[in-house]
Structures are given as structure tokens and as C-alpha cells.
From TrEMBL:
Keywords: Membrane, Transmembrane, Transmembrane helix
Protein name, per record: Putative integral membrane protein
Organism name: Actinokineospora spheciospongiae
Transmembrane segments: 33-52, 59-79, 91-113
Length: 123
């Protein structure tokens, strides 16, 4: 289920950022570039989680960590300076537009990676 949610967010963030960047980049360049960054992070995390090898788990840990830091930083910045975000990103207001899933998802991802690494180490 976790991988399916990551894949869905990867697809949604890619589509959203492509439309935003392609149609009205000049309206909110920071927000749209952050949407593109979120899309890349979701794609990398999805691939890392799907593969499941030790190396891909490390990649997924880095992606999930970047995602968590991004959600917290962009969420705080969008609260402190709303004018900088005339259009929302996936991570604006801690992912409020997406039911706060972007805030919870990297935590669940990191916990899942830790669990799967422990199971892999037990075999």
C-alpha cells in the first residue's frame, strides 16, 4: 500500500509540475520549481522502495529524508511568508492540500525501510 501511495504521489506531482511549469511558470516560479522537486523525490523514493535491495534502500532513505525536510521547510516557509507561494505546492502548509499525507508519508516510508532492512538482515 505504501508503494502504491508513493507511486500515486509521483504521478500526481509529475503531472502537476509539468502543467504548472509549461503553462504559467512566471506566476509562481518558486512554488512550481518546488513541485518539480517534489515530483523527482517521489519518483526516486518509489523506485528505491520497489527495488528493495540494500543499495536501493539507502537511496530510499535519502529520498524520504529529503522529502521530510522539504515538507517541514516548505510548510514552515509557506506559513511564515504566504506571499512567496501565490500557488500551492505539494508541500505547502505541510501538505494540507493533500490531507497532510506528504507530511506523514516520509515517516511511514522511513519506518517501512527500517522494518524491511531488519527482515532482510534476519534471513
Amino acid at each position: 500500500m505504501l508503494i502504491a501511495v508513493y507511486a500515486l504521489f509521483a504521478l500526481a506531482a509529475c503531472a502537476r509540475s509539468a502543467v504548472q511549469l509549461g503553462t504559467h511558470f512566471d506566476r509562481a516560479p518558486l512554488a512550481y520549481l518546488l513541485s518539480a522537486l517534489a515530483a523527482v523525490v517521489y519518483v526516486v523514493a518509489t523506485v528505491g522502495l520497489v527495488r528493495g535491495s540494500a543499495a536501493s534502500r539507502r537511496v530510499a532513505v535519502v529520498s524520504c529524508t529529503v522529502e521530510l525536510v522539504g515538507v517541514v521547510a516548505v510548510g514552515a516557509f509557506s506559513l511564515l511568508d504566504p506571499a512567496a507561494f501565490p500557488d500551492a505546492t505539494v508541500w505547502s502548509l505541510f501538505g494540507r492540500g493533500y490531507g497532510f499525507v506528504p507530511l506523514v508519508l516520509p515517516v511511514l516510508g522511513l519506518l517501512w525501510i527500517r522494518r524491511s532492512a531488519a527482515i532482510a538482515g534476519a534471513h
